[in-house]
Design brief:
heterodimer; A: mainly beta; six-stranded mixed beta sheet; five-stranded antiparallel beta sheet; about 55% strand; B: mainly beta; seven-stranded mixed beta sheet; four-stranded antiparallel beta sheet
Chain lengths: ~110, ~110
């Protein structure tokens, strides 16, 4: 049973527009969420995170929104740039238990078109 | 560059064989994590070591084992390999417990033929 779902395997967005990547989860005990970004031939790199006590966290062009009632989070990238083309993984953990409790989604491949 | 080093980058072997994947964590990090990414799958947590001791286990097969040495580098041993073990294996590290932020290596692509 997949507890973290990224239902869009890929997403194509025009440069300069907003990219919205979505993530749904089923485990109501998840209380910390992260987004990782992965380029080909590289490992994932941490992008942004959010605790369940917040509903929004911003870092430059990247904003993560959390809707606990809907068990849904989204990553907004504004404006989208060519270097944002990558695979984005959503991850969740429960109870401050550390990274061993992280559950990852399958990823969304974001393609920024010029 | 994350500071996490994995070797080799690519490994091709045959069914039934045994291989060892190596990981050097970031300087100062005590925890090492191993993940498997199969085709069309997300990152699956295998096992965590903290300062030489096994700390947590995930979906790791009995044919797989790992260890962390006194210098904090780690090795993942995969034995009696099957075709389905073909995957990208990532090592990640961080300072330790209660820290979800991970620093990943670039992975070892294992192909079992």
């Amino acid at each position: 049973d997949q507890q973290v779902k990224q239902n869009s395997p890929s997403l194509s967005v025009q440069e300069g527009r907003i990219s919205i990547l979505n993530c749904d989860y089923t485990n109501s005990m998840f209380d910390y969420f992260l987004w990782y970004k992965k380029y080909p031939a590289e490992g994932p790199t941490f992008l942004i995170s959010i605790s369940s006590i917040k509903d929004k966290n911003e870092d430059g062009r990247f904003t993560v929104f959390l809707n606990k009632s809907a068990k849904h989070l989204s990553l907004h990238i504004v404006p989208s740039q060519p270097g944002d083309s990558a695979v984005y993984f959503c991850a969740a953990s429960e109870g401050g238990g550390g990274a061993d409790g992280l559950t990852f989604g399958k990823g969304t491949h974001l393609i920024i078109q010029p | 560059d994350s500071g996490v080093t994995q070797t080799p980058k690519h490994l091709i072997t045959a069914t039934g064989q045994r291989v060892t994947l190596r990981c050097s964590p970031r300087s100062g990090d005590l925890s090492v994590y191993w993940y498997q990414q199969s085709l069309d799958q997300g990152l699956q947590f295998l096992i965590q070591y903290y300062n030489g001791e096994e700390r947590a286990k995930g979906n790791i097969l009995e044919r797989f084992s790992a260890q962390q040495f006194p210098d904090l580098h780690s090795e993942l041993n995969l034995s009696s390999l099957e075709l389905g073990d073909s995957a990208l294996y990532f090592c990640a590290s961080n300072e330790g417990d209660f820290n979800e932020k991970l620093f990943f290596g670039s992975g070892t692509q294992l192909s079992v033929l």
